[in-house]
Every structure is written in structure tokens, then in C-alpha cells.
Design brief:
Enzyme class: hydrolase
Strand content: 5-15%
Protein name: amidase
CATH topology of the largest domain: Amidase signature (AS) enzymes
Strand order of the largest sheet: 1-3-2-6-8-7-12-13-11-9-10
EC number: 3.5.1.4
Organism: Oleoguttula mirabilis
Low-confidence stretches: 318-323, 577-586
Number of strands: 13
Largest sheet: 11 strands, mixed
Catalytic activity: a monocarboxylic acid amide + H2O = a monocarboxylate + NH4(+)
Length: 586
């Protein structure tokens, strides 16, 4: 009799538990779900981490670690061991890991240290840096089950393209992180590994589908992690954990060779997912994207453009009309026209616009801030995105589940069911709609395009172009588990293939819990559900949680995106944590 999904899950969890050294185990009272609302400080309290472990994991960001390792001021084995220990603690508190390969990582770190001792040179641009990966990446000898029982105990025989690149550049991979079932849900729960908990507040979602990655980085169990994003799966966990996350354009970061749960070639008919960093600041994300771009990434994946980082258009010169030191031009998109942001999100957007209008930085004598109105495009983007994402009728995923009798996760119940596969003509029409929306969106960047709603710009109809757009990540604060509503504020930019990133701004304050909804009727069913996240919850649950914005750049302008995010981070961000968290801000 074949194993049931319960049998497989039990074996898989036992395998994972046995890969954590006994001396790194917490008392049973610290098991997942048994702790207080926040566990961010537990690693500092239990005595498993030495003073040196704490210094390594709290006094350096990823960029600083790369510099110290390359200069021989830190040994990779010490850095990797410290992060393995902290990841082990994070796993016991938040259930964020899937595959654990600490022993392999420490052995590789020793080899890299020996290489440095012999040659005096680092191996690659990421020499000795520990990095975590979302479970969908294939690493030789380990599963890429993505939390589906039918895909367990089938170790990868090859590495994903990005894994090969990272290893070539000297990175040390030591664990993979949890995902939701099907990787199409917004809470990271599956029947094999269980549910990942938000480390700052166990009542709230850590996000999905890179939720395990977000929880691990938030716990300082990883200096930088790699997630994937086809509808918000990097940006949503970044928002939920108060982190920075960047979704590149397709063609910038190798993606080939992953386990997506779908038939080979399916992505060509749908929307291409992209891989990108989740970190604690913008400079770490830029460091990783620069390292990938300068590592001949096109030799690992035929979809990657043959262009190193320095060849990508920078912030000042990416468009013909832009001159060096011209004012930074920022568009404020307050709503997508499909789900109206709740009062605290509206207030945040007003604050950001006001700060930018009253601020300046050395590179710009002034910042131009304009309001843009894309309400005529937002609902169409969601309709087209949903149509493209359902072309196979969910049949492949449900076939995987049927093999072991595995049920759907809670968030997917009522949302995912078998449907007829779309016909060739239906797929063609959806792709035509996508191209039309991408073409129409080009006008959003132009002052003359008809989407700028600032009175002066309408009157002048000049030749200005936006550098970036700032908009909400979601129309609501971080919701409780299994309560996330629409992804349109993120998925629209997957459909449009615009690089976009998330930037934490400040914490939700008690005053943010005030404010009433407009008396007008909901725009639609999605908007009605979104309103319930304000009217049907105790708003105290939001207090202290991060409030973040999304920053968007034109297609393939990834370097421009992170450079603009760095400017905005300097102008907008304030510490979200205290104590040791604050000390690590570099």
C-alpha cells in the first residue's frame, strides 16, 4: 500500500528535526505556537549563541560580511556556523525551514577558508557568505518538494541555474525555506512541513509564498535570502516581516531549473516568475543583484540578458529626457481602482508624498512628486493576471495532491478547484491582453501620457518622465493568518514585468487604528472583503507592525529601481525595532 500524505509528512519532519544538532535545541516550552507574540529576541536569551555568534549575526549586514570575508578579517566557517545555529533556533520558533544542510555548509566554509589561506584571494564576489533559498530551488542531493507529499524523497540530481551561479561566486548555501501549498497562497502553510509563524506576531501572517524566507531573515537566521515572485511572493513576505524585498524584471536573474510543480514549459504560456533578494536593507539587495549581474548570468540561463550591472541604465541616465542631477521624479499611485486602501494605508501614502515634497538630498536640488491615476488599468490587470494564472485549470497541482490523498491547505479551500484547461485561442487572447496592457502602461511614465493627475502637469503637458512609482504593497495592513485579500497591488507589476521592491517606512501606531471607511458602497466583492479587515477585526493587532511602500521602475530598469530605493530608504525609513535590532542598522 502506498504511503499516505500523513506518512510522508511524518518522515519528512523527522528527517528535518534530526538534522539540527542536539546542542542547538531549545527547551520544549519554546516549540512553535507556544511562545508569546514576538520571538525576535529569543535567540539572544537562550545561551546557544556565543558572544561571537551574536556579533557576527547582529553587527554586520550581508554587504559588510562580504567585505570582511574578502579581506580575511572574518572566517567563513565562523560566519556560516553562527548563521546555521541561528537558523536552527528560528526553525524551532517559527517553523521556517524545509531542507537543512548545515554539515555540508560548514564543510564548504572550511574549504573556502583553506582556499583563502593558500591564495590570499576570495573565491568569487560572494566568498564565504551564507545564503538561504526558497524551497523551490534545486540543490543536488536534497528535495525540492515545495511542501507537496508526492514530490518528497526525490532528491535533486542537478542544481538550479541560480544555485550554480551562487556556488561559483563563493556563496555557502545552508538551508531552504518553507512555502505554501502550490506556492499560490499568501500564508506559508503546507501539509508536509506545517505552518510558518510570523516571528514578530504569531497572530499575523508571515506572508507567502516566500514566507519561510521572510521569517528566517527577520529572525537574523540568514543575512540575505532568495525568494521567487510571480504575483507578490517576495514583496508580500518582505512587507509582513518589515524587510526589503526586490522582484526583478524577467531576464535579470537566472530562474531555470526550479521545481514549480507544473509541466515543463508552462511558464512560457503564463507569467514568468522571477527570483530576487529578501534582506534587511537596500544595499544588500543591490549587492546581490550586482553580483549576479556581473557573474555572466546569461551563461546559466538562456532567458537572462547578456548585460552586466554597470551596463544597466542607472538612475540619472536611463531615459533620453533625463539629465544628470535632474530632479528625481516620483509618481504617487494611491489606489489601483479595484480595492480601495484602508485608512492607515491612505494615511501612509499621504505622509510619504508630503515628506518627499518637502525634502531634498545632495544628488537632487528638488524632488518632483506627482499623483498618477491608473484606476482605468488596475481592474483589467487583475482580470488578465487571474486568467493567465489559471490556464491549466489547477489540474497539475491537484493531480499531485490526489496521488497521496492530500487535502488543500485552509487558504486554498474554496479558492482552488479543478476547471477545464483553457483553449489555445483563450491563451492567445490572454497573452494579447497582457501585451496591450504593457503597451498602455508605457504612457503612465510620461507626463503627456494622460495618467498624471497633478493640475500643473495636465496644463503643461510637458516632456517629463517618472523615475519610479510609489504605491501600496496591499490595500490593508499585515492581516491575521489566512486573511490576506487581493494581490493586485503586487501582481499587476508581474503582469507588466516592471521591477519592483518593498521598503519599510515606519511602524503602525495606535493613532493609525483610527479612521472610518468611506460611506460609498464597495467597488466589488474583493473590496468588500478588504473592508472587513478594518471593520471586523480588533485593530490593536496591527499596532507595532511594519507599514511599507512598494517602489516600481520601468521594465528592465532594475539598477534604477534599487538606486531609487536607496534614496527613498534614506529619506523615509525609521527603525522598526529596538535594542539589538537597532544596533545592527548600518
Amino acid at each position: 500500500m502506498p504511503d499516505t500524505w500523513r506518512d510522508i509528512a511524518a518522515r519528512k519532519q523527522k528527517q528535518r528535526a534530526e538534522r539540527i544538532p542536539k546542542e542547538w535545541l531549545l527547551p520544549s516550552s519554546y516549540s512553535v505556537g507556544s511562545h508569546s507574540d514576538s520571538v525576535l529576541n529569543v535567540p539572544r536569551e537562550r545561551g546557544i549563541l556565543t558572544k561571537e555568534d551574536l556579533r557576527i549575526t547582529e553587527s554586520y549586514d550581508a554587504t559588510a560580511l562580504v567585505g570582511e570575508l574578502a579581506a580575511g578579517k572574518l572566517r567563513s566557517v565562523d560566519v556560516v556556523t553562527a548563521y546555521c545555529k541561528r537558523a536552527a533556533i528560528a526553525q524551532q520558533l517559527t517553523n521556517c525551514l524545509t531542507e537543512i544542510f548545515f554539515e555540508d555548509a560548514i564543510a564548504r566554509a572550511k574549504e573556502l577558508d583553506e582556499h583563502f589561506a593558500k591564495t590570499g584571494q576570495p573565491k568569487g564576489s560572494l566568498h564565504g557568505l551564507p545564503m538561504s533559498l526558497k524551497d523551490c530551488f534545486k540543490v543536488k542531493g536534497y528535495d525540492a518538494s515545495v511542501g507537496v507529499a508526492a514530490l518528497c524523497f526525490n532528491p535533486a540530481t542537478t542544481n538550479s541555474a541560480l544555485v550554480e551561479l551562487l556556488l561559483e561566486q563563493g556563496a555557502v548555501l545552508y538551508c531552504k525555506t518553507n512555502v505554501p501549498q502550490t506556492m499560490m497562497a499568501l500564508d506559508s502553510h503546507n501539509n508536509v512541513f506545517g505552518r510558518t509563524i510570523n516571528p514578530a506576531n504569531r497572530h499575523l501572517t508571515p506572508g507567502g509564498s516566500s514566507g519561510g524566507e521572510g521569517a528566517l531573515v527577520a529572525m537574523r537566521g540568514s543575512p540575505i535570502g532568495i525568494g521567487t515572485d510571480v504575483g507578490g511572493s517576495i514583496r508580500i513576505p518582505a512587507m509582513c516581516n518589515g524587510l526589503v524585498g526586490v522582484k526583478p524584471s524577467h531576464g535579470r536573474v537566472p530562474y531555470a531549473g526550479q521545481e514549480g510543480g507544473m509541466q515543463p514549459g508552462s511558464s512560457r504560456l503564463a507569467i514568468e516568475s522571477t527570483a530576487g533578494p529578501i534582506a534587511r536593507n537596500v544595499r544588500d539587495c543591490e549587492m546581490l543583484l550586482r553580483a549576479v549581474g556581473n557573474a555572466s548570468a546569461w551563461l546559466f540561463d538562456p532567458d537572462v540578458l547578456p548585460q552586466v550591472w554597470e551596463q544597466q541604465a542607472p538612475l540619472h541616465t536611463c531615459l533620453p529626457s533625463v539629465r544628470v542631477k535632474q530632479p528625481l521624479c516620483v509618481g504617487i499611485m494611491r489606489t489601483d481602482g479595484h480595492s480601495t486602501p484602508l485608512p492607515p494605508i491612505q494615511r501612509l501614502m499621504d505622509e510619504v508624498a508630503q515628506i518627499l515634497r518637502s525634502s531634498a538630498v545632495p544628488s537632487w536640488s528638488v524632488i518632483d512628486v506627482v499623483d498618477i491615476d491608473i484606476t482605468s488599468l488596475g481592474p483589467q490587470c487583475l482580470k488578465t493576471f487571474n486568467g493567465i494564472m489559471s490556464i491549466d485549470g489547477a489540474n497539475t497541482w491537484l493531480d499531485h495532491l490526489d496521488k497521496t490523498g492530500e487535502p488543500l491547505s485552509p487558504w486554498l479551500q474554496g479558492r482552488l478547484r479543478r476547471r477545464p484547461q483553457k483553449s489555445l485561442d483563450e491563451v492567445r487572447k490572454l497573452q494579447a491582453d497582457k501585451t496591450e496592457l504593457q503597451t498602455r502602461f508605457l504612457d503612465v511614465w510620461k507626463e503627456s501620457g494622460g495618467y498624471w493627475s497633478t493640475p500643473d502637469s495636465k496644463a503643461k503637458q510637458g516632456n517629463k518622465t517618472l523615475d519610479v512609482i510609489i504605491c501600496p504593497v496591499a490595500p490593508h495592513p499585515i492581516p491575521e493568518i489566512d486573511s490576506w485579500n487581493t494581490t493586485n497591488y503586487t501582481s499587476a507589476f508581474n503582469l507588466l514585468d516592471c521591477p519592483s521592491g518593498v521598503l519599510p517606512v515606519r511602524a503602525f501606531r495606535q493613532a493609525d487604528a483610527e479612521g472610518e471607511l468611506q460611506r460609498s458602497p464597495p467597488l466589488n466583492g474583493w473590496d468588500k472583503i478588504n473592508r472587513k479587515l478594518w471593520t471586523d477585526v480588533d485593530r490593536k493587532v496591527y499596532v507595532g507592525t511594519p507599514l511599507s511602500i512598494q517602489v516600481v521602475a520601468p521594465k528592465l530598469m532594475d539598477r534604477k529601481l534599487v538606486e531609487a530605493m536607496a534614496v527613498l530608504e534614506q529619506m523615509l525609513s525609521s527603525p522598526l525595532h529596538t535594542g539589538a535590532e537597532k544596533a545592527s542598522k548600518l
